[in-house]
Amino acid sequence: MPVVTVTQLNKYLGSVFRGDRNLQGIMIKGEISNFVCHYKSGHMYFTIKDSESALKAVMFSQAASRLKFVPEDGMSIVAAGNIVVYERDGAYQINVTDIIPEGKGKETAALEQLKRKLAKEGIFDTAHKRPLPDIPKKIGVVTSLSGAAVRDIINVLSRRWPLGEVYAVNAVVQGQSATDSICAGILSAETAGCDVIIVGRGGGSSEDLSAFNTEKVAYAVYNCKVPVISAVGHETDISITDLAADMRAPTPSAAAELATAVSVDILSDRLRIAEKRMKSAVSAAISGKEERFALASSRLAAKSPENLLKLTEERIENMSKRYGLAFTSYLERMESKINEKIRSLDNLSPLKVLSRGYSLVYNGGEFISSSDELENGDIINIRFGKGGAAAEIKDKW
Amino acid sequence: MEEKLSFEENMAELNKIVTELEKGDIPLERAVELYGKGVKLSAVCKKQLSEAKIKITEVDGNIPSEK
Fold first, then answer.
1. What 3-state class would DSSP assign to B55?
2. CB-CB neighbors (< 8 A) of A169 in chain B
3. What percent of chain A has pLDDT over 70?
4. Residues of B with CB below 8 A from A264's CB?
5. Nearest Cα to A215, choosing from A183, A248, A175, A174?
6. Chain-centre distance of CA A370, in angstroms?
7. A245 is a domain residue
8. Tell me: the pLDDT tens digits for A344-354?
9. How far apart (Å, rounded) are the C-alpha atoms in residues B65 and B67?
10. H or E, element range at A140
């Protein structure tokens, strides 16, 4: 058997394709996706697909300039052209010569239909959306572990939340088995005790995202017991998973940021605040005690023996002052009473009676109050108010 | 001391201490004791934050493998 080079094979196949009438000047029905118009050359590159298969298509600027409309993703079309081999890549594609639009794409229509159905079933209800944990302990990541998405997520998580734990479940994210693989991944992360789960993939064309547009995945997200963040990585198309998820992130990195609302920096701040609060509480407690101590000690001082003694002394001094005053006035009162008595004594004095003309008669040392006590010839003494005399009794009666 | 506990547990304990301190009306000795405990906890938390390294488990299907 002769040995051929790849180039020789591709060239050969190219000629086989060109020679096959079934592949030349044919009409292909499908939906446009991944539409790109090269801005410089004006060539259009896109994929024509149906529910099962896809075909690469290129429309060169000359043909493209004749189109009366601008093709776009999701458009149902019939494309006319030739199937050729792109020799460099060993891939076949259709060189489109004309495009006939066919209304809204069937795939898109089916997706819209599914969205409406799920919306009716309450899968997208805001009321069902759960808040993400403030501080996640274990973050589940369901995606292809060989993709860039998981690296992006882990990078963000190790920067923002090194205290956390990542539970990364490898999942097939495109192709036939993707739907079941993603569902199993979500369940696995939930069972492993994750408190938030990121489900997604990094970018990709819309048919590559088809697993994220299935009812099964939508329900797996909806039924998950912990919050799910979707990171399907397609900003323009919102997938059904995005709608069912508790939170939607535009990229895997953004999902990781959302999952870690509280970063290490915020925690450091919280620590600082806790320290500050603690310090001010303690100093407030101490100054409170100080005030109470000052109050108590002033009250205590008021009851001290020194103070009591001082008070007593004052009281005594006060009392003795009052006592002195009272004694003086008592003495004065007594003096005036005595003077009065002396005056009335004076009035009663026999001398005073004598001065009024009465006289006292003595015989020897005896007062004579009756003539019976006398004999004629007795010598008596007479006392007058002023002076005295002796007399001899001559007669009596 | 509390190094064996997780950061969250230490942080929660620290918050408890702060709350109790802020209630005021606690004996001074207790306040000082709490404050000392709080300062230690805060240091442990800081250490945990600075030394933390994310733990990653990668699984394929149902077979977990530590990495």
1. strand
2. 59-60
3. 95
4. 49, 52
5. A183
6. 129
7. yes
8. 887 777 777 77
9. 6
10. strand A138-143
